[in-house]
Amino acid sequence: MFTGILIKYGPGKISVLITAIVITLSVIITSLSLVVFQGYIDTLGIIICIAAPLLILPVPAKIFFSMLLKLNRTEELLRKKNQDLEREAEKVRTLSGLLPICSSCKKIRDTGGKWNDLESYLDKHSEIQLTHGFCPECVDRLYPSFINNTPAPDQPQSPGQDQQTHVPQDPSSSSGNVEDSREN
């Protein structure tokens, strides 16, 4: 309730209001004390009870209320950040514990005992999106021609690749020279 009033009117106006209340209470208490103990009201006593709160109270009151407003704003900001973090934490799904996986085919056994592919299991139980590629060892093993730019031994050459042409020699010529074959 008080924080709402403080936000509505600001620390300056609230400081003036509190100072007025303190001055009024100070005058009442001082007047009653003077009447009870001295039997009359002293003018100097009344002036002191008005001047003292006017000089002392406004600055600390303004500082206090400004800090109170800042604390209130910071608390509200912290509350909003906590709500944001709680919403984000609800979205996080974490795999933890022991996960049975086949040593050979890498299938994963779920809680029902069914064996699933690694990709489908991760897709169901996490928000991971897998991308596919090859590690360097698998590229060397599966696609050696890709690395060396030469065909694999068991793969035929494609028509676009440079082929060495073998030209058979004429069997009638013994040395294979063109000049010898013309003389005949």
TrEMBL record:
It comes from the Bacteria. Residues 146-184 are annotated as: Disordered. Residues 68-95 form a coiled coil. Keywords: Coiled coil, Membrane, Transmembrane, Transmembrane helix. The chain crosses the membrane at residues 12-37, 43-65. Residues 165-178 have a biased composition (Polar residues). Residues 151-164 have a biased composition (Low complexity). This is Uncharacterized protein.
